[in-house]
Automatic annotation (TrEMBL):
<dbReference type="InterPro" id="IPR016162">
    <property type="entry name" value="Ald_DH_N"/>
</dbReference>
<dbReference type="InterPro" id="IPR015590">
    <property type="entry name" value="Aldehyde_DH_dom"/>
</dbReference>
<feature type="active site">
    <location>
        <position position="260"/>
    </location>
</feature>
<keyword id="KW-0520">NAD</keyword>
<keyword id="KW-0560">Oxidoreductase</keyword>
<comment type="subunit">
    <text>Homotetramer.</text>
</comment>
<comment type="similarity">
    <text>Belongs to the aldehyde dehydrogenase family.</text>
</comment>
<dbReference type="InterPro" id="IPR016161">
    <property type="entry name" value="Ald_DH/histidinol_DH"/>
</dbReference>
<dbReference type="InterPro" id="IPR016163">
    <property type="entry name" value="Ald_DH_C"/>
</dbReference>
<protein>
    <recommendedName>
        <fullName>aldehyde dehydrogenase (NAD(+))</fullName>
        <ecNumber>1.2.1.3</ecNumber>
    </recommendedName>
</protein>
<dbReference type="Pfam" id="PF00171">
    <property type="entry name" value="Aldedh"/>
</dbReference>
<feature type="domain" description="Aldehyde dehydrogenase">
    <location>
        <begin position="22"/>
        <end position="488"/>
    </location>
</feature>
<dbReference type="InterPro" id="IPR044638">
    <property type="entry name" value="ALDH7A1-like"/>
</dbReference>
<dbReference type="InterPro" id="IPR029510">
    <property type="entry name" value="Ald_DH_CS_GLU"/>
</dbReference>
Length: 508
């Protein structure tokens, strides 16, 4: 395919990069199979332990120089990366769609998200601010400033194979850090393509070798990052199980971890909702990326007065969904990432039925010439009791649960009852309901929306959630502070040495 060639993707790719060059690796290859048609796209050489150590050495050396570049100059490098992403948007969007399986519109949207975070980071490079404070001691001044943290490890997931890396890398780079990225072993070619794009910019602008590093491998490579004392921050996106393992390893060496983990997101549909907004929000939230977003809508909590009407409209909307090749823009839903995901989908359906759920839109695998990869499934809808164990479990698949409620307090309690706390929403034209939902005793999620769905966050706001979602914040707002170390400074410009708290220390 032409877009692969334009991105520098071949049948065999080196998987360890240090910015402008690629390191040799061992014989272990990671094979990338497209969930679209089951075909082998290409293979990537897995990073060896020896190559990993070389990557770390180059990154450490690069940091010593990169941190001395003025932040606006580092921002200029990010601006140039954004320009290259604009040039490669169509090709990279197609690769994301083909390797991961999301619709082409979503693939292009993911690359646009990368461009947007570049633009955000450019402005940020001139706003890495601290604070000035009054001292209690005469002739003294206090202030705080932020310094580059050092090496940042980034572990990303398959469902957003490029955007989440960019959230971390662009901010870390303008902050003066260097990055070591381990992409998902399910989407390694997206990582290779991004490294090619960044390497071109860095090579043309004499950026130190080692500012942008790429490693590839299985969970073992992620463990190298998590256990490495030379990496003060590890940002990890993935399942709650993975996040707990990373957090434990990082905490054992007193490092920092930034976690973006599971979501079990709900939309409350009030009796005062505008159904013309609520239906498309619910459908896109539930079936976008074939239900494989951490912000996917998995539960609809619907007021009993409109429950039947809403359900009828929702079922009709599902009947209009087109499933198939995500590169065909006429299709709404592509495949799941692999057959293991299909198994998880089937197991969740079986568990739902066993626990008493009733399906109003039935699921199942799709077969035939157009679904030869074996990864295509039907988005489905089940009526359930809110406390079923399966409802409290995140299943990365297009399964939507419908739940009734009477009072808003009950709906909020149902929404908050799951272990995850990422994204939430309410559909209502009642201002009292919207304010109650956003109040301190309302949604317990990191993201709470009114009259929009649970997915599709903008980069300007901090992204992340609470509870088993991990507590991390990435992307916008002041998330940049994750990538820096804070320092408090006190300057005495007097001829005396008064001590804080009025302490007297007289040497006679």
């Amino acid at each position: 395919m032409e877009f692969l060639q334009k991105l520098g993707i071949t049948s065999e790719n080196k998987g360890t990069g240090t910015g402008q060059s690629w390191l040799s690796a061992g014989n272990n290859n990671i094979r990338s199979l497209s969930p679209v048609d089951g075909k082998l796209i290409g293979s990537v050489q897995a990073t060896t332990r020896a190559d990993y150590e070389e990557v770390i050495q180059k990154a450490q050396q690069a940091f010593k120089e990169w941190r001395l570049w003025p932040a606006p100059k580092r921002g200029e490098m990010v601006r140039l990366i954004g320009e290259e992403l604009r040039k490669n948007k169509e090709n990279l969007g197609k690769l994301v769609s083909y390797e991961m399986g999301k619709s082409l519109q979503e693939g292009l949207g993911e690359v646009q998200e990368m461009i947007d975070i570049c633009d955000f980071a450019i402005g940020l490079s001139r706003q890495l601010h601290g604070l000035t404070m009054h001292s209690e001691r005469p002739g003294h001044r206090m202030y705080e400033q932020y310094h580059p943290l050092g090496l940042v490890g980034i572990i990303s997931a398959f469902n957003f194979p490029v955007a989440v890396w960019s959230w971390n890398a662009m901010l870390a780079w303008v902050c003066g850090d260097v990055c070591i990225w381990k992409p998902s072993e399910k989407t390694p070619l997206c990582g290779i393509a991004c490294q090619h794009i960044v390497a071109k910019v860095f090579r043309e602008n004499q950026v130190p070798e080692g500012v942008s590093c790429l490693i590839n491998g299985t969970a073992e490579a992620g463990e190298w990052l998590a256990a490495d004392c030379s990496i003060p921050l590890v940002s990890a996106t993935g399942s709650t199980r993975m996040g707990k393992a990373v957090a434990t390893m990082v905490a054992q060496r007193l490092g920092r971890s930034l976690l973006e983990l599971g979501g079990n997101n709900a939309i409350i549909i009030s009796k005062d909702a505008d159904l013309n907004i609520a239906i498309p929000a619910a459908v896109f939230g539930a079936v976008g990326t074939a239900g494989q977003r951490c912000t996917t809508t998995r539960r609809l909590i619907i007021h009993e007065d409109i429950y039947d009407v809403f359900k009828e409209k929702l079922v009709k909307a599902y009947q209009q969904l087109k499933i198939g090749d995500p590169l065909d823009t006429r299709n709404h839903v592509g495949p799941l990432i692999d057959k293991a995901a299909v198994d998880a989908y089937n197991n969740a359906i079986a568990a739902c039925i066993q626990q008493g759920g009733q399906f109003v839109v039935k699921g199942g695998m799709l077969e035939g010439e157009n679904f030869s990869s074996g990864c295509y499934v039907r988005p489905c809808i089940a009526e359930v009791a809110h406390n079923l164990p399966i409802v409290h479990t995140e299943t990365f698949a297009p399964i939507l649960y419908l739940i009734r409620y009477k009072e808003l307090e009950e709906a909020i309690a149902i929404q908050n009852s799951v272990p995850q706390g990422l994204s939430s929403a309410i559909m209502t034209n009642n201002i009292r309901e919207s304010e109650q939902f956003l109040a301190h005793n309302g949604s317990d999620c990191g993201i709470a929306n009114v009259n929009i769905g649970t997915s599709g966050a903008e980069i300007g706001g901090a992204f992340g959630g609470e509870k088993e979602t991990g507590g991390g914040r990435e992307s916008g707002s002041d998330a940049w502070k994750n990538y820096m170390r804070r320092q408090t400074n006190t300057i005495n410009y007097s001829t005396q040495l008064p001590l804080a708290q009025g302490i007297q220390f007289d040497l006679g």
